[in-house]
Amino acid sequence: MAITAILFDIDGTLVDSNDAHAAAWVKAFADFGISTDLSQVRRGIGMGGDKLMPAVSDIEEDSPLGEKIARRRGEIFKKEFLLTLKPFPGASDLVAAVKARGLTAVAASSASKEDLKALLAIAGVERLMDDVTSSDDAEESKPAPDIIQAALKRAKAKPSEAIMIGDTPYDVVAARRAGVEIIGFRSGGWTDHDLQGVIATYDGPRDLLTRLESSAMFC
After folding, report:
1. What pLDDT does residue 33 have?
2. C-alpha to C-alpha distances, 32 to 9, 26, 53, 69, 163, nearest whole angstrom
3. pTM, two decimal places
4. What angle do CA 23, 28, 31 make, to 5 degrees?
5. Measured distance CA(8)–CA(189) in Å, rounded
6. Residue 110, Cβ neighbours under 10 Å: how many?
7. Local structure of 44: helix, strand or coil
8. Tell me, what's the pLDDT at 57?
C-alpha cells in the first residue's frame, strides 16, 4: 500500500533538544531536594513525563509532588534552555520535501502542547505540518502507541499507509505497537543498536533529505 503520511517526532529528530530536556528535569528534581542521575534521565528522554518521572525517581507525575516537579521543569526549560535550542540541519527542508511530494506531515510528539508549539517554531515547520499531536492528545505517552494512533487519525491514514520518523527506542516501540513502520535518526544520541526495529537509520534530517528518493517513503 502506498505511503500517504509521515509522522514526525520533534525532540531529537528535528530539534537538538534532548540534552536540554534532561538538564531541565535534573534541575527541577533538585529544586525539591531530589537527586537524580543525569545519564539515567537522559536515557529517559523521549518518554513523556508520566513515564520518565517514576523511572528515575519513583514519583508519579499525577501525584501532588510530581505535578509540582513537572511544572517546575517546564518553567526551567522555557527560561533557561528554550531560546538556546537549534534545529538540526535540513529539518524544515525535509518536512517541506515531504509535503512537496504530496504526503501528509503530522507531528507526533511526547512534548506538552505548549512546548511543542515552541519546538515547531524553532524547527521552522509550524506552517508546514498538516496537524500536530502532543502528550495532551494521549492517555499514555511513548512508548505507548497512543500518540501514534492519534497522529494516524489526524493524518487520516491507516498504519500501513504511514511511516514514523523518530530518534529514540521509545519512538520505535510506540510506532511498532501502532503497526507503523519507523525510520530512525541518530541525531538524538542513540545508537543503531538502541534503534533496533527501524526499517532504516540516518544521521538526521539532512542525511535523509539527500537520500529521500531512495528511502522507504518512495520505494
Report:
1. 97
2. 30, 10, 13, 7, 40
3. 0.95
4. 125
5. 17
6. 32
7. helix
8. 95
